[in-house]
Each structure stands twice: as C-alpha cells, then as structure tokens.
Amino acid sequence: MTTNKWTFHPVPLIKERNLDYRIREVKANIINGIGEDHIKSFPVHTIRKDFPILSEKIKGKQLIWLDNAATTQKPTYVIERLKYYYLHENSNVHRGAHTLAARATDAYESAREKVSNFLHASSSREIIFVRGATEGINLIAQTYGKQNIRKGEEIIISQLEHHANIVPWQMLCEETGAILRVIPVDSSGQIILDEYNKLLNEKTKLVSITHVSNAIGTITPVRDIIRLAHCYGAKVLVDGAQAVSHLVVDVKELDCDFYVFSGHKVYGPTGIGAVYVKSEIMQQMPPYQGGGNMIKDVTFEKTIYKEPPERFEAGTGNIGDAIGLGAALDYVMSIGQEKIFLYEHNLLEYAQERMLSIPGLKLVGTALEKTSILSFTLKGYEDEEIGSALNEEGIAVRTGHHCAQPILRRFGLESTIRPSIAFYNTREEIDEMVRVLTQLQKGNSKIYLHI
C-alpha cells in the first residue's frame, strides 16, 4: 500500500475539555501572540501537498477550497487506500472461505475499530456503518424512536438543525402522534439553555441536537444538554456531521446515547458514515432493514437476527468506502486533533477580523463558541452574485439555505454565502477571498458576474 509522503510522530490526544474553557484559552493565546506561533509551526504547506485536488486550476486560477462544510477534500493516503482495496482485497465480507474474503473482512472490521477509537467508544460493537449522518438519524428514528416514543410524548430539537435532523422527527411525529418541540437560539446563534430547560418534562423521550451548526458554525453546549435530558430520563442523539473534523469527540465523556457522522465531512469518501449507540440501548433496538448479512437463521415461519451491530447492516455494505473512512481517521489522528483545532480556530479568528473590515459585510452567527463557518451577506448584492464572482477567481464557497432554513429564517434570511475552513486552508487564501470581496464592493470592473 502506498502511504502518504510525510509522517508525524503520534502525540497523546487531549480529551475534549470543557469547551467554554478551551475556546477562551485559544482566544487568550491569540491575544498573547501564542496563536501566531502556532500558525507558523503548523505544517499546513506540507499537509496541502497530500491533497492533489488543491493543485487544480479553476478558470485559470488556483483553486481555493472554502466549501469544507459541504464536503472535505481527500488526501492521497485515502485515495491510495481505496485503490489498494480494489486492487488487492475486493470481496464481500464475513461469509467467504477464501483469502480475499478474509482480507476484506479484516480491513472492514479494522475500520469499525478505528471509528470506535476515534469516538472514544467502549467497543467497536457500538458502531454501525451507514451511508452518512442522514441515514444514521433515520435509523434511530425508525428503530429506537418507533419502538419507544408514543402519542403525546415529546421530542426536542433546536432551531440550529440541518433538515436531516428535523424531517425524520417530523415524520415520526406524524406516524406516532408524538410532539416536536424546538429550542430557540439567541441573537448570536447560541442555544438558550434556560429555554431548553423549560421544554424538558416527564413527556420528553428524546433530544436530538447538532454538535456544530452547519449553517452558522455554532458549537452547542452538548454536555449541558445531555446532562439535563438525562435528569428526565430522556435519551440524546448528537448530530456530529460538522463536529468530527474540528473537535475531539469522546462519546463516553459526553454520555450521549447516540452519535452520528458522515465520512465525507472528515476527509473520507462519500456514501459512508457511522452511528454510535450505547450497547445496552442497541441490544434492545429492532432491525432497521431486512435482508442478507443481518440474519442468523431464516425459515418461512421465522427469522432470527444477528446480534448488533450486524443486525443493522442488511445487505452488502459499502466495504471499500468504510475502509477509506478508516484511512481518513488515521490521517486526521496522525496530525493530532488538538493541533487541528488550534490551527483552525486561529484561522477562523483571523478570517472574521479581515471580513468585518469590508463595508456592508455582515457575519451571520457570532456565538463565542463556534468553528469553521463564516456565513455572511454583503449589502447590495445577491448571494448568488457573490458566489459567482468568487468562483471566477477560483474560490469555492457555498450559497443558499444550506439545508438549514429554520435557523436562517431566525435571522430574517433565506440564504447566505458560506465559506468554511479546514486545516489545509491558509491565511493567504483568506486574504484572497477578502481581496475579491473588497474589489467587488468597490465596483472594480475586473470582477465579472455570471449568473
């Protein structure tokens, strides 16, 4: 197998501490100049060489990929691992008696173990492979939710949620007669914990909350949300799609009951993701789908299902991409999640300061605790115009409602422009985006709009 060209000595991962403290510490470091030293020492230019697509030219300009909240780019290490699988290991898993089946099974189950370690779960048996966070949430809704939530009982979500963490619960409520409650956010885009506490009661059966908002970057106070929910006996699902590439996630320390994420948000392939479920809960959950791989015995009279997690993985899984996800997690861990967090947060602070110098630019989502995302509007321009103008200069950002219409409407908006940062982005790329936006705001004739 071809490996990446560079190697970092592994460093002990620091478990995610109280997030309020962690971000305050980062801000203090920036003020004291420590952040500047970290920016200089982080090997971003070495890392960038591992992402071949970053050398791509768009309209004759160097690609600047600032659409990381939509999907992250893939390092050579992941691409080569996928190639190796299809060249040397390709087989269905678990049931074969031949060498390639054994190789594929070992690689697939090794990937499950890597996901477990990445989330600090107790066992790889608490990990289910799915197509992504969306399927993960639907799986929980249609198994645990349908089994345990009845008419008149309540599910709590927040205004910050992606549609994938709204629609499945609406569907479940329509089917069961349960009631959906929504936690409001303040003017910065942060959850109002006092209002959340008021929603909790003996009818609350499930709280499903984003860890990081995909639209405005808010990091939610998941520890407090989980702790309060458990006081009422409610279970908690955390949507980690936007968190896993930026934060250390420790599901045991969080004490969440379910955690979901998508591989393509964390430098892995599309079409693969994972669900963490506490083992004692998973044991009681009914199957999500029926078919091969999830059965122990089938007769025309009765089927006996396998133990979890295979019980929830009907049919042939996305074997190659699960292995690719494992490689992506190896890659991230080799750099160090704490290092990534520090570098990205410094870059976020730098970007916000630079962008606020542009007349008429308004950042949407200004919570103290946020990461990665720089949603904004620019006075005098439609969002599509801005996205098109940036694209003419090779800069990729997302425009639209970001599949999170309720939170944008909380701010009186239907869409924003959304640059989003990863650890391979640089200050120079931020400067180039700011240059284009500044020229556009000044009416510079060199910026052409193509709508």
Strand content: 5-15%
List the strand order in the largest sheet: 4-10-9-8-7-5-6
Oligomer: single chain
Write down the Rg: 22 Å
Structural class: alpha/beta
Q: How many helices in DSSP terms?
A: 16
The dominant shape is: globular
Q: Low-confidence parts lasting 5 or more residues at pLDDT below 50?
A: 1-21, 445-451
Q: Termini, distance in Å?
A: 45 Å
* Integer average pLDDT: 91
Helicity, as a percent range: 25-40%
Largest sheet, if any? Answer: 7 strands, mixed
What's the structural blueprint in terms of helices and strands?
Layout: H1 19-31, H2 34-41, H3 44-48, E1 57-58, E2 61-62, E3 64-65, H4 76-88, H5 99-119, E4 127-130, H6 133-148, E5 154-158, H7 167-176, E6 179-183, H8 193-199, E7 204-210, H9 222-231, E8 235-239, H10 251-254, E9 258-262, E10 273-277, H11 279-282, E11 295-298, E12 303-305, H12 319-335, H13 337-355, E13 361-363, E14 376-378, H14 383-392, E15 395-396, E16 398-400, H15 405-410, E17 416-418, H16 427-441
Parallel strand pairs: 3-15, 5-6, 5-7, 7-8, 8-9
Antiparallel strand pairs: 1-2, 4-10, 9-10, 11-12, 13-14, 16-17
Helix pairs in contact: 1-13, 2-13, 4-12, 5-12, 6-7, 13-16
List descriptors:
alpha/beta, 451 residues, globular, single chain, disordered C terminus
Short note summarizing the structure:
With 451 residues, the protein is of the alpha/beta class.
Report on this model:
This protein is of the alpha/beta class and 451 residues long. It has helices at 19-31, 34-41, 44-48, 76-88, 99-119, 133-148, 167-176, 193-199, 222-231, 251-254, 279-282, 319-335, 337-355, 383-392, 405-410, 427-441; strands spanning 57-58, 61-62, 64-65, 127-130, 154-158, 179-183, 204-210, 235-239, 258-262, 273-277, 295-298, 303-305, 361-363, 376-378, 395-396, 398-400, 416-418. The strands form 6 sheets. Strands 4-10-9-8-7-5-6 form a 7-stranded mixed β-sheet, with helices on both faces. Strands 1-2 form a two-stranded antiparallel sheet. Strand 1 (57-58) and strand 2 form a beta hairpin. Helix 4 packs antiparallel against helix 12 (319-335) and helix 13 (337-355) runs parallel beside helix 16. It is globular, with a radius of gyration of 22 Å.
